[in-house]
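Subgroup meeting minutes
Present: P.N., E.W., G.H.
Scribe: E.W.

1. P.N. recapped why we're keeping a running log of single-chain structure predictions: easier to compare across weeks, and new members can see raw inputs and outputs side by side.
2. G.H. added today's entry (139 aa).
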Amino acid sequence: MRTKLNYFNPCALANPLPGETISDATHPVGSVNPDGIPVLFQGPVRDTATAILLLGGRQDNLYSPGYYQVNASLFKNFTTWHEQQLQFRADAFNVLNHPTLGTPNGSLNDNGGLISGPKFFQNNTPDARFFQLSLKYNF
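Output recorded in log:
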């Protein structure tokens, strides 16, 4: 179940393998680097399975929460004189009052998957439900 505290399971992901596991001119496959990391793969890496293993898994497989907002508007035109009109307009933004959650923390430590705040679009775009009434005179 996805919540703000644990939007994804960081235990289901793996850190990439160190780059020292790929062979070079001085360290062939089967040898050990000076820092103790065994050389496991022949370089350069050209097959997809080994590249995915070295990268820690497929990329871009985690997504943020979606943007859920329903807006509604009502218009009514009143004819005043000849072709002139007075337009009344009522707008409702975020009618369902659904919060728009921000991006989860992408690290694999204790805070992995934590959503710590709302998504920001602009400084003047509130996340809560609000209404707006307006009149416009067309001539």
